[in-house]
Amino acid sequence: MAWWWHHAPALIVYRDPGEGPISFGDIFEGKHLIDVHARLQTRRLGGGNMPRTAAERIARAVNRPLSDPGETVPMYTPALPQRPEDFHVLAYGGATMKRDEPLRAILLSDSCAIDTALGTERGRRAQGRLLFAPMIPTTETAVEALEEQPLFGRLPLTAAPGKFGWGTAELRDCFMVDARDVRKEDRILTLTADAAEDLEAAWDACALRRGPHVVEHNVTKLAHALAGEDGDAEEQAGAVEMIQRTLVVAWRLEGGLLRAAADSPVPDKAALKQIVAELKELEESARAAHERLARALE
Q: 14-37+97-191 has which CATH code?
């Protein structure tokens, strides 16, 4: 983590969500968490459970006898009409399809969208979909490389002893899950506040090309451009540094602090005081950035 983002690296990344509400950054585990997507071959499917005799005949043909007397075999094909009450499609899976271990994914939908989809407001029923990023196992070396050289779309994840090993959240392979099937009992961990901010920054960079990662990328290019100009190199570097600090403070103020204060049912004086402090820092860093850049261009 860069010094201008968090004051120090977080030693604790995950925490037990307990009975808290489902929220951004929660980690889920389940067989259904497959990063499905559509391709040109995607089609509507009709069908359902096959008659027992037909199921047994097909099972024998593929050398897979039905072990449970009550077991049924569903069959879906574009050749059959789709039932009005059922919506099945031929879809395609990504990297998670290659794994035998439990499938895990991290929740990316924001708190407002989550509350609406789960029906937590006014006791409504769950409806709609929530956005997830698949978690893919990797090595500690690969995670360290991503921390040194971040890539838009891949968030490195440290290991959680007893839960899972080192991995990445593949933000470019997001998929949706029906809100009715997003259950607390499938949630195994959630991110700490600092780690959730890291996820938000990575998601902003991947989806919107904004936030701290994008700021860092752009000011690095700006620094190279200014290095080719005549002038005080130290002044130019200081200007770029203050521009970076200013834009990151603005991002944190807009996304986290202001949202936290606005979501409180009553005025949260602690949150408002923090906003005042951040506004003061924003004012000072913006003034310093303006003055230093102006001097660097003289």
A: 2.30.30.110
